[in-house]
Design a protein that fits this description.
The protein is an alpha/beta fold and 294 residues long. It contains nine helices and twelve strands.
Length: 294
């Protein structure tokens, strides 16, 4: 199982860079950044740095690790613009970029910025069409698409990415999104405990089989809030939080491995903005937990 880090974009840039360099030196495989402009609260207060600007800077200053958006909201940018941003960061990084994309959901951002958030049906149709735009620009010399929402006319994207620039889709739904992931994505992300991940993973495997795709070709990732120590109480009904002692975390990650997880993404958004606390969590996971998972 690979281990990646997700430092919150609430950190000042100088702190974010320190944390990205720290996890790279600690042996982490990737650094991910959320694509939001404000907290998901009624007050929506607090500084938040923009995802792709952070990723471009980290691509230039931090070696080796994969870099990706977790995940870009499709409603915020035209997918052709997004694809060009992504392949430019891929060049800056030397081929290490993963484009994580989702349909868009955070209501307060759409309300405050005046960005349309369609109803679920058209939102998901638009999303799959956006995935087709990205893939066509990435994979074809000139891209053509005559869609319901997007049109491409011999559209170039040059230079092409240096690396494979996989498309990762963030998706938790069990009806429509699994089919979109199976048809369009090279990687998939969902939040959850081992039990939630196992359930969603089975749904995703079944979707791949329905689409005639080898399920083994889909890279599967998850993230969860981690509470270390006695502050964690199991059995609260929260299916996106894990924690406890080191021994409990080793057991938890053993269950992730049994469920077929390829990559766990350690987030620090629940720890406040003290970089020492973030480093402590990142080091614990890299040095004390994952090496003991069979």
């Amino acid at each position: 199982m690979r281990l990646s880090a997700w430092p919150t974009a609430y950190h000042p840039w100088s702190t974010f860079l320190v944390l990205a360099r720290h996890v790279e030196a600690a042996g982490y495989d990737g650094v991910w950044v959320a694509d939001h402009f404000m907290p998901d609260t009624a007050e929506a207060q607090g500084p938040v740095h923009e995802c792709f600007s952070l990723l471009a800077a980290v691509a230039a200053l931090v070696p080796r690790v994969r870099l990706g958006s977790l995940v870009a909201g499709n409603t915020y940018r035209h997918p052709a613009v997004l694809a060009n941003q992504a392949r430019t960061i891929d060049h800056i990084s030397g081929g290490r970029f993963v484009l994580g994309l989702g349909s868009g959901w955070q209501e307060n951002e759409h309300e405050r910025y005046g960005i349309e958030l369609p109803a679920t049906g058209p939102l998901l149709r638009r999303f799959e069409e956006a995935c087709r735009v990205v893939r066509a620009l990435r994979d074809e010399p000139l891209a053509d698409l005559d869609g319901e929402f997007y049109q491409l006319r011999s559209a170039p994207m040059e230079p092409k990415p240096v690396g494979p620039m996989p498309l990762l889709i963030g998706a938790a739904g069990e009806r429509v999104m699994p089919g979109i992931v199976a048809r369009q994505a090279q990687e998939w992300n969902v939040w959850g405990t081992p039990e939630r991940f196992a359930r969603k993973n089975a749904v995703m495997t079944a979707a791949c089989e329905r689409e005639g795709r080898d399920p083994a070709t889909l890279w599967r990732t998850t993230a969860a809030e981690i509470i270390v120590g006695s502050g964690f109480r199991a059995g609260t009904g929260d299916d996106v939080t894990i924690g406890g002692s080191v021994e409990q975390l080793v057991d938890t990650f053993g269950r992730y491995a049994e469920a077929g997880l390829d990559e766990f993404i350690v987030m620090d958004g629940n720890l406040g903005l003290d970089p020492a606390r973030s480093m402590e969590l990142f080091d614990l996971m890299a040095h004390d937990v994952l090496p003991r998972v069979g």
